[in-house]
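Here we describe the complex-level prediction in full. Unlike the single-chain runs in Section 2.1, the two entities below were treated as one system.
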Amino acid sequence: MSEEKIEKTSKIDLDRTEMPKQPPEIRRHNFNEVALGYTEELAIKEAKRCLQCKKPRCKTGCPVEIDIPDFIACIVKGDFSAGIKKIKEKNCLPAVCGRVCPQETQCESKCILASKKGEIAIGRLERFLADWEAAQGKIDLPKKAKPTGKKVAVVGSGPAGITVAGDLILLGHEVTIFEALHRPGGVLTYGIPEFRLPKAIVAREVEYIKMLGVNVITDFVVGKTRSVDELLEEFDAVFIGTGAGLPWFMNIPGENLNGVYSANEYLTRMNLMQGYRFPASSTPVKKHTRVAVVGGGNVAMDAARTALRMGASEVRIIYRRSHAELPARLEESENAEEEGVIFNMLTLPIRYIGDENGWIKEIECIKMELGEPDASGRRRPIEIPNSNFIIPTDAVVCAIGNSPNPLVPSTTPGLDTTRHGTLVADPETGKTTRDRVWAGGDIVTGAATVILAMGAGRKAARSIHEYLMGK
Amino acid sequence: MNKILELRMIVPNMHLIKIEAPDISKKVKPGQFVIVRPDEEGERIPLSVADWDQESGTITIIFMEVGASTSRLASLKPNDYVATCVGPLGNATEIKYYGTVMCVAGCYGIGSIYPVAKALKGEGNKIITVFEARSSYLIYWLDRFVGLSEKIFTITRDGSSGYKGHVKRLPDIIHGLSQLPDIIIVNGCTYLMAQTSNITKDLNIPTIVNLNPIMIDGTGMCGVCRVTVAGKMKFACVDGPEFNGHEVDWKEFLARRKAYMEEETLFFRRSEPESKLHKEGKCQV
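The structure predicted for the assembly as a whole is:
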């Protein structure tokens, strides 16, 4: 490996090139993207730090196996066009992944320089190339294989669906995506806020697969408008990527008070329905002064930071474990903290208390302490008796997770589910218990990441292709 | 994008819209709803389907103009397109033989209960129809119900037709019948459904309501339509919209329905010229 190289520490630059960001005091008042991206100079500077290992470990940390050192080498040479092509061989959503992939636990964690805290900023470089290409205004379309005459239906237009569609269209199959909402993109559109993933980027990526020839049908609820069985009459194969869209609540008193939202509702109002522009857009949103977000994941951070941008003066995260166990990406919790979000750690809401009109007024919480590690490997939070206290608030956003949407499983006989409601599918191929039906993404794994859904989509596409061509 | 084939006010403030939606027309069943978005900026509005025709591939909806979005929908014209019409959503009414079915309807519910009554009649049920309205001129589609119903009663606030008063007169109608209905189905405003449920609970008559909460996606994703039924949290969009009226927490439901009242009426206040003519909701001229 690059043992030899790494010893010459004098030559190794461990200084990760920072990406310019909007300052916290400015960005907490607008919905524009927080991270501004590398300039060409910054990108080349960062790319030059890459040691070009002979056996690159970064690649093994990527769920879709992007040839990372190769695209970085292209940046060093200033050949950005070759660089983006290299990425697109493996990843059809680079502008999205460059922004929302947890690189710190994937490719970047495997970088040889990670041990010295100087890992290459792979995600930022990926983003740079994708944005550079978009700025050129023209996109090179890859060559498609000869038409096979086979038809594939993809249910859901989130990251899994887009990947499957993008892969299969290149292999010569006819692909139609069915999306339940009025805008494609799935969680990228309804869930992740504008300031973290601009909707124009999602639209661009969807436009790209449309340019490749994918037919995208919105406002079509598979399971309702047409069943999977009916799709199978028209299509040779069906891929289900309907995600994890059913919000969990905590089953505590007062959860149906006005002002208590699921994170899905809160974020969908803001993102999909553009509530932050109300009344210019027509889906109403409330202006809350004090907002409490329950949960510690990326979605919780998204909700908290959205609340700040909507003008709330006091926004807090309530999480039952400690800072160290926050499931959110470090970058996201740091951004939230910089912007002024208050963190109430080791705190569990046990009751929501309303006013006489049915609006949330305060939260009764209890203090927690950490015990022994549980099944997840994280230390289990334990209630401290008699430590109850009250947090006054105008709104609560419940961001404690989602389970898979049962619409498709419940209307498709023979499609087996686990006790968690996820679809049973072969992890290597995505094959479900129904003939000619594949699945991938959150509907199989439960709520996970964009890139894992894409990885599952890629595997399913391969398996679907084999099936279609072997027929 | 779905083409509007017909759009007109059928009684004051109540509109009939016929939309081209071949996929939905093939699938929709009594009791189900669709989500309509009038235009690209529009809100997603859940609306019960009142009629459909598979052959022409159309669905018909009756809706009331209550706020910004329904007002935008009402302002469209035939041959315009709605940005979204998606469905059919929710579960269908259980259509089977019950015996005597009383259909209580008001407002847009007169439209949405029509396919329910028709299908139940088809199963051999005896249909008794009760319309509730502020005044007789707000009742529509009477002709459609005449052939279906054994009896039709009306309750009007001003007494211009049938019983004078509001839904609280329902026991007078029920007790006037030779025997109690086997089931009561109510479609309409929250007040009508809640009051009817209260009345029939005492009389021990099974009562089905078709809830109309605020929704966004209508597929179980956002959870804004949650309602407490028999002490459990349910999502009206995927678990309903029909529930046992005796088990619904009406106080909570009403509070949740009103959550955006202020923002909704903001539209009307904004669209009216600043003047002293209207004060405290009253015309001062």
